[in-house]
Amino acid sequence: MVSLSYKKNKTFYKLLFTIMLPIAFQNLISSSLNLVDNVMIGQLGETHIAAVGLANQVYFLLNLILFGANSGASIFIAQYWGKKDIENIKKGVGIGLSFGLVIATLFFAASFFFPKLILGFLSKDFEVVTLGSSYLKIVSLSYLFTALSFSFGFSSRSIGKPKLPMIASIISLLVNTVLNYILIFGYIGFPALGVVGAAIATLIARTIELIIIVVHVYRNTPEIAVKLSDIKAITKDEIIKIGRKALPVIFNETFWALGMTTYALVYARIGTNAAASVMISNTVNSLFMVISFGLGNAAAVMLGNTLGADEIETAIDYNSKFMTLSLLGGAVVGLLIFLLSPPIVYRLYNLTPEAYEITMYTMRIMALFMPFKFYNTILVIGTLRSGGDTFFSMVLEIGCVWLIGVPLAFIGAFVWNLPVYWVVALVSLEEIAKLILGIPRVVSKKWAKNIVSAH
């Protein structure tokens, strides 16, 4: 029986809240930034919502590839921090930064020069593609800044200092909110730019976020303040060592993201109302999911630090608590979404009655699967990756998405011609499969390894 008593687990909860709360708050800020974009664009109608949502699928894919690369590097950074090995921490940061910049450059080039080609693959609605392209071309300029912010943010969390990315995100949100209001609708002398205004606001906000992070890192966080000499000192063997654990995470996130993009393609082909309702549901749900991501990232750091310090039994004990908390947290959040989504959507979005009804059904179905999503977030991000069990987590996630979720999405939408909310329900069955297949791996304790002890 897992004990969650605060009196018996003061050390656990002190570490958990120190790491989790800033991460959860930062995720809340990031989700709020997306919500601000969507709510303000939502005042222009469903076509504009669908256009921005479609364009953001490109950022979503980049975001997850960067997440994969930096998650892989952070496995080592967290364990090296458990050993207090600063030299190797900087090498891990350097590898994460270098890979992120290469990927972001490719995404920028494709999005800036071929926006209509990319979005035309996702939707056949000419107006949606045209509006989305104007947004995507401008936002793509921020991709390199995002890659740098990601790497430093992940590295900061991995050494138990999560406040920096949180503070940068708060300032970024404030800037984005004010500029959205001014540029989308045209105030204080500026013209009303619509989706172009939203894109410019996002670009400026992400630029400011990066400046804050870089200045703080190089002034106050020497452990991750990488210099060119640190990157040059990285050997081929060290790249291979980190690459063996990082590549499965990168493939995992990339193919998982492609799966999510495929879902978005299916929803878009069902109709503009369907695409808008799913985008709204995902945006609102992301506000509630910050608890899950905060818990998952806290698990990755705490488990990684304890494994790196050779405290294997402590890591196993911590993991049992994380798993129990994930199911309880998911049930509570699912209930909150179920109860609060009607007033939130009604007040924030200017939807037709039909679009509102579709969105409500979609959100309620998502709420029912929330405990499974919470558990799987901790399982993949925290448990499996903290000990370097990245190949199994890759097979688990990619297998469930592409062998269960994607086929069911196509069958539900194009064979059975179901409404979008029932297609979402079919897709969500992959979360149940992931949980069932993942539990034996957790129980086996094969994930609980110190992968830096020999170095």
TrEMBL record:
Q: List membrane-spanning regions.
A: 12-29, 58-81, 93-114, 134-154, 166-190, 196-218, 246-266, 286-304, 325-345, 365-384, 391-414, 420-439
- Please give, as recorded in its UniProt entry, the membrane topology of this protein: Multi-pass membrane protein
Q: Which CDD domains match?
A: MATE_like_8 (cd13134)
Q: Which domain of life is it from?
A: Bacteria
Where does the UniProt annotation locate this protein?
A: Cell membrane
Q: Could you tell me the keywords of this UniProt record?
A: Antiport, Cell membrane, Ion transport, Membrane, Transmembrane, Transmembrane helix, Transport
Q: What job does this protein perform? A: Multidrug efflux pump.
UniProt family annotation:
Belongs to the multi antimicrobial extrusion (MATE) (TC 2.A.66.1) family.
User: NCBIfam families, alphabetically?
Assistant: matE
PANTHER family from the entry? FMN_FAD EXPORTER YEEO-RELATED (PTHR43298:SF2), MULTIDRUG RESISTANCE PROTEIN NORM-RELATED (PTHR43298)
Q: This protein is called what?
A: Probable multidrug resistance protein NorM
User: Which species is this UniProt entry from?
Assistant: Fusibacter tunisiensis
